[in-house]
Amino acid sequence: MEQDARIALLNEYSSSKRSWAIVALTTLVAIFSLFQNRSSFKDTWFFYLVFGFTITQTLYSALRYVHYGQSIPSVVKSAAKNEEDCKRVDGTTYPYLYRLELGVYEDYRKKLPTKITYYLHGFWVWLVFSVIFTAIFYALLPIFF
Fold first, then answer.
1. What is the domain extent for residue 63?
2. Cα(91)–Cα(2) distance, rounded to whole angstroms?
């Protein structure tokens, strides 16, 4: 049972890592396409906005890639949380896979990159990240172009 849970988590994290790598590469292609076609934008502010948003998504997907990359070694070496520590409200315990994932979270949150990237999941976090960094890139891009 333990080995099956670890295999399931490894498959999940590997798949997520691969997905974020594809997103990062796709946004890089979009950046090169935007850069080549910047003269076709009638308004330069719109180009800066789209270009900044695309750079932001590349940064976000790279950070998520690092997050899943750092979590894979932790799946192999970390222990599952104790049943006593993982009780539901009704007194039953969580499944082993969930307790193992909690143990993995505890282990890899000790590393420096994942102290930052652990909190970068969820729609609202993505939205706030995107707005803040797009605004930063929107302000800085006219300096370079």
1. 2-144
2. 23
